[in-house]
Amino acid sequence: MEESFVRKRISSLRMKKGVSEYKMSLDIGHSKSYIQSISSGRALPSLSELLYICDYFGITPMQFFDEGMEYPVLTNQLLDATSKLGDEDLQILLTVANRLASDSQK
């Protein structure tokens, strides 16, 4: 995995969340140019900062680094919602999800 992945992933998640580099920098307690310096390749976050960035997006580090997961925030929200469902509802949801996945591959 290349350093550019971290920069691109943060930028992608930030845009999906609809926040500017400036706002995200301030939201996580840094100077207004912190995220811009990461996006431009001048800096990389430390491990502790990366964990904090994951918390900011509401995802786990595993979801952050899963290159195949295009929408980790939505996936995490869906997982949280399904944890409250019973067996019958989960079976229904799984059937619908499988149908949608097979339709999208056509």
Q: Under CATH, the topology is which? A: 434 Repressor (Amino-terminal Domain)
What is the makeup of the main sheet?
Answer: none
Task: Provide the structure class.
Answer: mainly alpha
Tally the helices: 7
Number of domains: 1
Q: Any idea what the CATH superfamily is called?
A: lambda repressor-like DNA-binding domains
Helix % is 55-70%
Helix and strand succession?
A: HHHHHHH
Strand fraction equals: under 5%
**Terminal-residue CA separation:** 30 Å
Which term fits the overall shape?
Answer: elongated
Going by CATH, the architecture would be Orthogonal Bundle
CATH class: Mainly Alpha
Question: Radius of gyration over alpha carbons?
Answer: 17 Å
Low-confidence stretches: none
The count of β-strands is: 0
Mean of residue pLDDT values: 92
Report on the structure:
There is one protein chain. The two termini are 30 Å apart. The chain has 106 residues and is mostly helical. The radius of gyration is 17 Å and the shape is elongated. It contains 7 helices and no strands. The chain has a single domain (3-104), classed as 434 Repressor (Amino-terminal Domain), CATH 1.10.260.40. The model has no long low-confidence stretch (mean pLDDT 92). It has helices spanning 3-17, 21-27, 34-39, 47-57, 61-65, 72-82, 87-104. The longest helix is centred in the C-terminal third of the chain and has 18 residues, at 87-104.
